[in-house]
Amino acid sequence: MINPWKGNIMNAITKSIQKEKLEAFLDQSEFFNQPLFEEHPEGYFALNLEGRFVKVNKVCEELTEHTKEELYQFTYEDLVYGEIENFHYIFNRIKQGDIQKYECTIKTKSHNNRDLEITKSPIIVDNEIIGVYGIAKDITQFNQQKMFLEESERLHRSLVEHSPDGIIITQDDELVYANKEASLLLGAVSKENVIGKNIYELFPNSKEKIMVEFIENAEKGMPSSLYEETLIQFDGSKIDIEMKIIPTIFRGAKAIYFILRDITEKKLNHQLMINSEKLSVAGQLAAGIAHEIRNPITAIKGFLQLMEGGNDYRKEFFPVITAEINRIELILSELLALAKPQLDNYQLEEIIQILQHIVALTKSQAILHNISIETQFNSKQAHVFCDENKLKQVFINYIKNAIEAMKDGGTITITAKEEKNYIVVQVKDEGPGIPKEIRDKIGTPFFTTKENGTGLGLMVSNEIIKHHKGEVKVDSSSTGTTITVNLPISKTIGVS
C-alpha cells in the first residue's frame, strides 16, 4: 500500500530543494544582480515553479503599480485578466522546457487595464528546471493605436463604399479597387468586373497631355485639380464626369485614387441656362438691331426708287446697295449665332476681332440710350483658345448691363491689353455703381437689382469665363462700374 503522506513529503522536499536552488541561482547570477537588470526599459522578472514572483525590476513595479514587496506576495494568476486556464497551459508548457511568447492584459493596482507582451523561458540548472524567467513589454499604447487605425480604416472603407461619388484605385495603371458607384458609372454588373482593367481604357482622351500629366504628378505625390473628363462605359457609351486624381497608399503600396462624379445632368442644365440667357439677351437687343437694320433698308429703298425713276447713275448704286445688304446679313448672322444653341467649339480666335464684332452689334442699342462706346485696344494679335459665341455672349451681357445702368447716357469704355500671359479686357461704365452691401451677391443665381431680371446673366457669364480658365473681377464706385476679365493667351493654355 502506497503511503500518501510519503508522496506529499517528497513533493515538499522537492519544492524546497528547487526553491533553494532558485534562490541560490538568483543570488549568484550576475545578470539578476547587475544595474542593467534593475534599470532595463522592459519589465524583467523571475517566478518559482508555483508561479510566484521571486525577482522583479523597477519597470515591473511601474507596470503593475505594485511595490516589489507586494509583488512577491502574488502569483501571475493574481494579475492576469482573462481565461486562467489558458495561462495554466502556457505555464505548464514552460515547466516542460518550452519558451512561450504571448499577449495578455493585467489589472493594475488602480484597477486599470494594461496590455503586455510576455516572453517566458525556463530557468535550468544542472539539467533541472527550477523556475521561470520572463520579460514584460508594455504594448498598451501600441494596441490603442492599432485599434484606432483599424477603426479609421473601417470608417474610411465605409465612407468610400457608400460615397455618392465613384471611387477607383489603381496600381501600375491597373484597377485594384472600385466602389459601388464607380461600377454603376462604368455600367459594370459588379465591382469584380472592373478589377484588372487598365485605367487608360476608360478614358478616350487618356493619352492627351493633361491626364497623363495629372497621373504622373500623382505618382510623384501631387494631387490634381478638379477637372472635366469623358468616361467610356462598358457598353461603349460616353458620359461627362468631373474627376480628381490623388496619390494614396493601398495595401501597403503606392497607388492612385480617382474620384469620379457624373455631371451629365449638371452640364445639360447649365447648357439650358446658357441658351435661355442667350435668347434673353437677343430679345433685349432686338430694339437696337431693328434700328440698325432700318438704316440700310431705308438707303436701299431710296436707291431702288431712284433706279425706278430712270436715274442715269443706277450702276453706281449697286455697290452701295450690296454693301448695305451685307451689313444686314452681318447683323442677322451675329444675332442668330448668339441665340442658336451650340455645342462647345473651342478654336484659336483673335480676341480683338471678337470685341470689334460685339461693339458693332451693341452700338445701335447704345445710341438709342444716348450712350457712346469707345475702344482702346493695345493688343492686335492676341489669340485665345475659346468658344467664340460664348465669349460674345459674355461681353454683350456686360455691355448690356452697362447700358441699362446709365439712365442719363454717357460713355462705355472697352479696353484690351496684354499682361504677361494674359489678355486683360475691361468694360467700364459711368453709371451710379453697385452698392457696397450687395457687391458680394453679384453673380449669384436669381439675385438681381433689375425689376424684370433673373440674376442668371452674370452667373452664366462668370461660369463661361471660368471654363475658359479665366478670371472675372468687379470694381464699383459711385462714378461707375468696371468689369475686368483675364483670359490666358493661347500659347500658355488650352481648354480640355
UniProtKB/TrEMBL annotation:
Any Pfam family from its record, for instance, is PAS_9
Q: Which UniProt keywords apply?
A: ATP-binding, Kinase, Nucleotide-binding, Phosphoprotein, Transferase, Two-component regulatory system
Q: What class of enzyme is it?
A: transferase
Which species expresses this protein natively?
Metabacillus litoralis
Q: Write down the CDD domains for this protein, in alphabetical order.
A: HATPase, HisKA, PAS
NCBIfam families linked to this entry: sensory_box (TIGR00229)
Q: Which reaction does it catalyse?
A: ATP + protein L-histidine = ADP + protein N-phospho-L-histidine
Per the UniProt record, which EC number(s) apply here?
Answer: 2.7.13.3
What is this protein's name?
histidine kinase
Determine if Transferase is one of this entry's keywords.
yes
Q: Where is the Histidine kinase domain?
A: 288-491
A GO molecular-function term, please? ATP binding
